[in-house]
Amino acid sequence: VKALVRKIHDYLFEIPPQGRMRVPARLFIDERALRELTEQSSQEWNALEQLKNVATLPGIQKAAMAMADIHPGYGFPIGGVAAFDPKEGVISVAGVGFDINCGVRCLRTTLFRKDLEGKEEQLADTMYQVIPAGLGSTGELKLNTKEIDRVLREGAHYAVSLGYGREDDLTYIEETGRLPDADPSVVSNTAKQRQLAQVGTLGSGNHYVEVQVVDQIYDAEAAEAYGLELGQIVIMLHTGSRALGHQIGTDYLPFLDKATKKYGIEVPDRELVCAPIDSPEGRQYYRAVMAGANCAFANRQVLAHLVREAFWKALRVPDTAIETLYEVAHNTVKFEVHEVDGERKRLLVHRKGSTRAFGPGRPELPERYRQVGQPVLVGGTMGTASYILRGTEQGMRETFGTALHGAGRAKSRRAAKKAYPADEIVRRLREQGIIVRAHGKASISEEAPGAYKDVDHVVDVMCKAGIVARVARLRPIICLKG
Ligand code: 5GP
Ligand code: MN
Ligand code: MN
């Protein structure tokens, strides 16, 4: 594979179109990462091949692109972005991911590191009690199917109407926490039934609520706009659309498989089944995804409320001391306007394990952040740094305003489970002053820091490529896992 790769600059590599590829495949990585990617390429771990496959899809614009956190996913690589012409292009399950609208919310607090001194264990225990997590866990919110339909139509707005969180949270959520094109009638009953008691639950594995401290500021102007200071306590929460989102993906795979055949779309991998955006099937799947996305918005809104509740119960911190800094998703498909060959064009952008990272001036951003660009929330691991970055103008031009979403896996879940005994990981993190509370041992092993790439390096690559810029680095104090 390596012979086919062309170096554009130190942090950008390209595979020119070959075979059925309609556009190049472009990777924001460095030599070292490229070497790792090509060495790892095997039957079951082959993100490069997946990226090339994406480049063959009809209507794809500019390039199939991957960020520095690239690793293999279902059909599309994780860490990827692909934008399609709305007339010629396609919409696919693999381009969104099964955890529809999985994303991260960052809450900033008025607390500083010293305010938690000696109270960490107590806070961790309370978070563990208050925030439902783990496989198949249920929340305090029990909904009927009518109410689920409201979740699917109104997203975070519905959660706020039930008393979870506040209106001012909504301003700082991508799309204000509600996508208008959602249609609950194209979401199966099975999907809805699975979600009746799951709104307001964290889930398992990679999903987390993490208490962090700001340990470095890189950009004073942006940090001020984001309300960040050195030593400040922030909370990151990462979860998605739970069982409902997953069921939508499962339901629509056979549906899109039929569409792929009906419209004679040739896909190099069965996982890439898709429908023309401009077809009844494509439109229906899109409306279902929007509904799934709203479920994730509602879920994170309820979880933000539970975080506030835990801080109140454990430390008597009032909820007004905890504000939403920003919430942004990394498994999405959306219509957006971008410049292609000097022309402004409406595109359907699939972000699969990548974050929208709009630069300064975009009307979609809340006024407070419009001058400096969008906060880009990047989780590292429970044992390393996480970052708050900002979107740039260069990112708008080069990646459709898209950036990385995490460190990205270096080892598969299976390999990580073998390599990292949970008890040992927890003990080692404790030695570093990090408290981990998990509902399952598997989550700890699979998500062990060693299972991921070096987040500092991955972020460095994306910054040097000019796609994002650093604002603040965060260090974990307490991590609650599923
Ligand atoms: P994904 O949504 O692809 O499953 O995960 C997104 C990113 O979250 C991963 O690439 C990883 O870097 C990060 N991550 C996974 N577990 C944790 C954790 O416990 N804490 C933090 N801060 N980040 C994590
Ligand atoms: Mn997820
Ligand atoms: Mn995620």
Can you put this structure into words, describing what you see?
With 482 residues, this protein is an alpha+beta fold. It contains 17 helices and 19 strands. Strands 7, 8, 9, 11, 15, 16, 18 and 19 form an eight-stranded mixed beta sheet that branches. Helix 10 runs antiparallel to helix 11. It is globular. The protein starts with 5 loop residues before the first strand and ends with a strand. It binds guanosine-5'-monophosphate and manganese (II) ion (2 copies).
Topology:
Layout: E1 6-9, E2 12-15, E3 25-27, H1 31-40, H2 47-54, E4 64-71, E5 78-84, E6 90-92, E7 103-112, H3 113-116, H4 120-130, H5 145-154, H6 156-161, H7 167-171, H8 189-195, E8 208-217, H9 220-226, E9 232-239, H10 242-262, E10 274-276, H11 280-315, E11 322-329, E12 331-340, E13 343-352, E14 355-356, H12 367-370, E15 375-378, E16 386-391, H13 393-399, E17 402-403, H14 413-419, H15 422-431, E18 435-438, H16 441-446, H17 455-464, E19 468-481
Parallel strand pairs: 3-4, 18-19
Antiparallel strand pairs: 1-2, 2-3, 4-5, 5-13, 6-10, 7-9, 7-11, 8-9, 8-19, 12-13, 14-17, 15-16, 16-19
Helix pairs in contact: 4-11, 5-11, 8-10, 10-11
Bound molecules: guanosine-5'-monophosphate and manganese (II) ion (2 copies).
Q: Which descriptors would you attach to this protein?
A:
35% helix, 482 residues, seven-stranded mixed β-sheet, binds manganese (II) ion, binds guanosine-5'-monophosphate, alpha+beta
